[in-house]
Amino acid sequence: MDNDAIQDLFSGLGPVTIKRMFGGKAIYFQGLIVALEVQNEILLKADEVSAPAFEAAGSRQWRYERKSRKPVDMPYWSIPDDAFDDPDIMTEWAKLAHEASLRRTK
To answer: Among 11, 46, 51, 92, which residue's beta carbon has the most beta carbons within 10 A?
Structure first.
């Protein structure tokens, strides 16, 4: 996904900053990471508070696969399908990702 498409996807949240990161992209809002682009997929930040909502919406958690090691579940979840068609829904999920980042800094 190019940077303009990412900016558009997160436009309801506000202006985001996009930085290259390990072959993907990190997406920041107000200086906090809210999402990653990994293998052309946007993954939203979640934590123990918000992860159940992502799971209930049918999202899947990113699992980092490492050679000869046990896979690691990462705190990022796929965007629920209905969010791609409705900017208001996408904004709500993006807000949850931002809130998870805010809780992480405390």
So the answer is: 46
